[in-house]
Design a protein that fits this description.
about 65% helix, mainly alpha
Length: about 90
């Protein structure tokens, strides 16, 4: 059973939490670039596709060692996707 002092304490904590989040909530200060819609390629699961290709090459041709190079294409893909997105703006 809650006592009146406990209710006051809970209310004080809630008010402090609201003040904290309102103080550090800077959504109105976001740059124009981050507010724009991102490219459809950001949602593409390229790392998962690369992992599937890695397993296919590894199990079918037992080429595990050279197949790891596929994982090096993930940051390259991410670079081109971000580059394409900035070029569209």
């Amino acid at each position: 059973m809650l006592y009146s002092d406990d209710n006051k304490t809970v209310e004080k904590c809630r008010i402090k939490e609201e003040k904290y989040y309102s103080k550090y909530d800077n959504t109105e200060n976001l740059s124009v670039q981050s507010k724009k819609e991102k490219s459809k390629w950001y949602g593409f699961p390229y790392p998962i596709i690369a992992t599937i290709i890695y397993f296919i090459i590894g199990f079918l041709w037992e080429a595990w060692h050279p197949a790891w190079l596929i994982f090096l294409t993930i940051p390259v893909w991410a670079y081109f996707v971000s580059k394409k997105d900035t070029d569209d703006k």
